[in-house]
From TrEMBL:
Reaction proceeds by a ping-pong mechanism involving intermediate methylation of a conserved cysteine residue. Residues 117-360 form the Radical SAM core domain. One of its GO terms (molecular function) is tRNA (adenine(37)-C2)-methyltransferase activity. S-adenosyl-L-methionine binds at residues 186-187, 220, 243-245, 322. The keyword Phosphoprotein does not apply. SMART domains: Elp3. Its main location: cytoplasm. This is Probable dual-specificity RNA methyltransferase RlmN. It comes from Phytoactinopolyspora alkaliphila. It is found in: Cytoplasm. The gene is rlmN. Its cofactor is [4Fe-4S] cluster. It is an enzyme of class 2 (transferase).
Length: 373
């Protein structure tokens, strides 16, 4: 074992992001710094700086001996993401960031501030570079999958957002992130281990993690049934969002190709099991696409499928489609959207049309990365 101040660094494996503090739980961090020849409490100091003060530069950590700061930073806080571009809208309360990962892959996050009776800040994060689900109306789905993101790469998006807020870079003055949604690039359930680990880092009390309430975290999926069932056993209180987009198998096979593996009924049954196990109401995400899936009869069918599985377990979020350049898919007419919503409400289902922030800054997931690839 090296002596204090003589850190030994583990070489980075080709093709894998460098190990980072956020990849590890508290015990793992303490074990790592001990292996590096430092006392275990150094891990707690590092965690406090990173998760509570949003500091990643060890040279700013003045409670660490100057002789070990550089080596500790290289070993525990390597640079994983770098901002390529920021785009802002909504008078500066919405900021989309294009990130370059350590290997050059591009991903996106969107920070959205909502002011009113209480200040709420939501960050939408990516969990994969690209996506392998191949949904034809989604910009990310047309990229294909580059790779899974590590736990720390996911967490870094949120820490960076928290740093922007704390520094007053977002309109409205200093603030804190209250909600995290895994609705950016990628299929979260296809990167299950890293996503669940990231959820734990985000929700562990500071300084072990960021201290965001579990009920403020939403994990989306296109319907990977086995992963939904696995998530229901994790003892987490996060919201599950099922990206359904069609209530009938014939159309959903086209819009969400994973439906050829798990059909609509199977996905909805898994979502209901998640509610039964966790008590957390499930969100049904439904992108309204003109003349494709926005017919009133499809709203009626969806309403019947949901109420057949009970009352009070689900909430529907119709989403006006943010079309990608050159795509044949576009948003539904407002009157058609209103009819769709009214049809669902007639079944007693709560419905909220999604706020489509960022449409003027390539706000749909994957658009900015595709344009800059």
């Amino acid at each position: 074992m090296p002596k204090p101040g003589e850190l030994q660094l583990t070489p980075v494996r080709r093709g894998k992001p460098p190990r980072h503090l956020a990849d590890l739980d508290v015990d793992g961090r303490r074990a790592l710094v001990t292996e590096l020849g430092e006392p275990a409490f150094r891990a707690d100091q590092l965690s406090r700086h990173y998760f509570s003060r949003f500091i990643s530069d060890p040279e700013q950590m003045t409670d660490l001996p100057a002789s070990v700061r550089g080596a500790l930073g290289q070993a525990v806080l390597p640079s994983l993401v770098a901002s390529v571009r920021h785009m802002e809208t909504d008078s500066g309360t919405t900021r989309k960031t294009l990130w370059r990962l350590y290997d050059g892959a591009l991903v996106e996050s969107v920070l959205m501030r909502y002011t009113g009776k209480r200040d709420r800040v939501t960050i939408c994060v990516s969990s994969q570079a690209g996506c392998g689900m191949n949904c034809p109306f989604c910009a990310t789905g047309q990229q294909g999958l580059t790779r899974n993101m590590s736990t720390a790469e996911i967490v870094e998006q949120v820490v960076a957002g928290a740093r922007m807020l704390a520094a007053g870079e977002i309109a409205g003055g200093p603030g804190r992130i209250t909600n995290v949604v895994f609705m950016g690039m990628g299929e979260p359930m296809a990167n299950y281990k890293s996503v669940v680990s990231a959820v734990r880092r985000l929700t562990d009390p500071a300084p072990a993690g960021l201290g965001i309430g579990q009920r403020g975290v939403t994990v989306s999926t296109v319907g990977l049934v086995s992963a939904i069932d696995r998530l229901s056993e994790e003892d987490l209180s996060v919201t599950l969002a099922l990206s359904l987009h069609a209530p009938d198998d014939e159309l959903r096979d086209e819009l969400v190709p994973i439906n050829t593996r798990w059909k609509v009924a199977e996905a909805l049954d898994a979502a209901r099991r998640y509610f039964d196990r966790t008590g957390r109401r499930v969100s049904i995400e439904y992108a309204l696409i003109r003349d494709i899936n926005d017919q009133a009869w499809r709203a009626d069918l969806l309403g019947r499928l949901l109420t057949d599985r009970g009352q009070g377990w689900v909430h529907v979020n119709p989403i006006p489609l943010n079309p990608t350049p050159g795509s044949k898919w576009t948003a539904s007419d407002p009157e058609v959207e209103r009819t769709f919503v009214a049809t669902l409400e007639a079944h007693g289902i709560p419905v909220t049309v999604r706020d489509t922030r960022g449409s003027d800054i390539d706000g749909a997931c994957g658009q900015l990365a595709t344009a800059n690839a």
